[in-house]
Amino acid sequence: MQSLQNQVNPEISIRFFNKDLEFIGEIDNFKSTVYVRRWETFGTFEIHLEEDRPELFVEGYYIMLNNDAYRSGIIQYYKNDSDGYEPKSQKDIVIKGYSLLYLLYWRITVPPATNNGYRIWNNKPIEDIMYDLVNENAVNPSESKRKIPQLTMGTSQHRGGKLTFQTRLKYLTDDLYTLSRQSGLGVSIKLDAVRKRFVFEV
Fold this sequence. Notes:
This protein is mostly beta strands and 202 residues long. It is built from 2 helices and 13 strands; from the N terminus they run E-E-E-E-E-E-E-E-E-H-E-E-H-E-E. It has helices spanning 126-139, 172-183; strands at residues 2-6, 14-17, 23-27, 32-37, 44-49, 62-65, 72-80, 93-99, 119-125, 151-153, 162-167, 188-192, 197-201. The strands form 3 sheets. Strands 1-4-5-8-7-6-2-3 form an 8-stranded antiparallel β-sheet, with no helix packed on it. Helix 1 (126-139) packs antiparallel against helix 2. The longest helix has 14 residues, at 126-139. The radius of gyration is 19 Å and the shape is elongated.
């Protein structure tokens, strides 16, 4: 787990993207930011500002810290918590959210009709299982409506040792967490702002 904290540091900037991953603005004047990365599941962020930019702080929009694809996230909370007393008003604009792996949170592992309703891997590298899970449930699912737009994948390097594993109607992020803890492999989704896409990686 890693964290990033800043107190009005001009070297740190926050870039904002809409749901189509179009760049819509940037802020480098804020009171504090905390970005917590976790290797086995999604992390969190919380940012406090004095300037209210409601056109940027939209639930479902994306942020990127310092043009770092791995310090990206999705906004899930926005509140103008200023006290409203002029001229000595205490202004506090708060936005919170999760790292991009949260995009997989609501995906359920849908099994095939065979194998008694379970998706089963026999003696397969754990990294391969992770990529299969994401591919089959979010990138190229059998039902197109379950596909997460703009999500692509890296390439497995077949790491983590071999394992027999099965899943059926579980949260995708829970399975990734289990496999990460067992293998020591980390999982993340980065924001490729140039190609306007998300990339799942192990």
